[in-house]
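Side project, low priority. Logging it here so it doesn't get lost.
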Amino acid sequence: MTTDTSATDVALAAPAFRARWAGAVLRTARPRQWPKNLLVFAAPLAGATLGRRDGLVYAMVAAAAFGFASIAVYFVNDVVDAERDRRHPRKRHRPVASGELPKQHAIVLGAACAVAGLAAGLLISEPLLIATVAAYLALSFLYSAKLKQIPVIELLFVASGFLLRVLGGAAATHVPPSGWFLLVCSLGALGVALAKRYSELTSLGAEAVAHRPVMRWYRPAALRLGQIAVGAGMIVAYLAWAASEHPAGMGGARFWHLASALPLAVALVRFGYLTGRRTSAPVEDLLTRDGPMLACEACWLALFVAGL
């Protein structure tokens, strides 16, 4: 009787364990971060063309490639940062840090996702996509191992992840991005990175150094000034892009794209205000869950599309 009861308990516990494990894997994969991979559509959207034939399909493959690659980075990063995450008020609940997902499982899943990301480039026979995904993985792992300890340099490497997504989408669709457009993307990514560090420093205080040692080199005022300067530079670069993309004979398109700089500037001001408050909420939530911010983004998108 005892043996039968034990066997029944094991049989009932197995599905529950698998469900908890699957939930831990999904949370570690960070579904809320997946929209970042839509940046692969930036170059085709800015160029008002999907480039090659079936360009939409190629762009979707690029999005999937960076999706798998970014998930691989999340798994590996959570293993590397597990000890520090346990001392963080929010990150201590991450599955690897809390023990819900064994480190060995995270490493195996990360490796599999990295291979899947690189294989996507092979699937469409696009060497440049493979190169950008490989560069993203290499820089991300290098960042986790060493570069995140170097002030300023680590900010540039965080921003490079966004830019490589843009370049990957351009490579997959054969849409060459303009220099001004790449500068806009680069400054936007750097602005987000600065906002992340400022938010961490102001919300965690002295504990920020324990969680991220490089924070000892940063000061809130300097990060804030850098965020303002980068935002201003982004607007200037955006106006330069809008003016250079459309020849004199395309006054209507140029007007709408120049006009779209206004809601973009308002969105940056709103973003600066939100990140200026002491909050432990992820910076990404400020971009996707704030009503006025979403209104600015919708207005920008409408004017941008009108200019296509």
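Brief comment: The chain has a mean pLDDT of 87.
Revisit when time allows.
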